[in-house]
Amino acid sequence: MPDAIKGGERAVVAMGGDGAPAPSPSASVLVEGANAALLDVDFGTYPYVTSSNCTIGGVSTGLGIPPRHIGHVVGIVKAYTTRVGEDPFPTQFHNEPGERLQRVGHEYGTTTARPRRCRWLDTLMLRYTNSVNGHTAVGLTTLDVLSAFETVKIGTGYTVRGRRCAYYPASLETIGEAEVAA
Question: Which of 26, 47, 71 represents a domain boundary (last residue)?
Fold first, then answer.
């Protein structure tokens, strides 16, 4: 590993389980995750998760990079939210707008080609994933897909049994009962 970064150059380095030392704090290393935070085995919507850590903690547990060496955490966020498979989805469309997002955004599973379920951007969920990941910046993608809509909505909170949720609900049952707050 030390041979991969010399003289302040920036490099993309494949980290393996070969016992190589973590990069020095002055090194610039880019680590990219492949799944969304709510698929994380520890912080996701269990049991609808993958078998790994998709949040920033995976950098330490999966690559052996100590947390103190992580300087910036950029969250990459779609301008709307999607999911293949099942789980409660308070801002989900069950009609034409969801189908339009699927079509215009090419929202089909990479491996299975199953249609992704689509919903408006959910900022309560984003606040939760930010609290887990500690984003220092956010990159918003797929804004062009929303140009297919005259009106775009953003979910800013939930109500459950008539009460506003202050935080993203911890249980699937509560998420399943949640309605997007007006």
Answer: 71
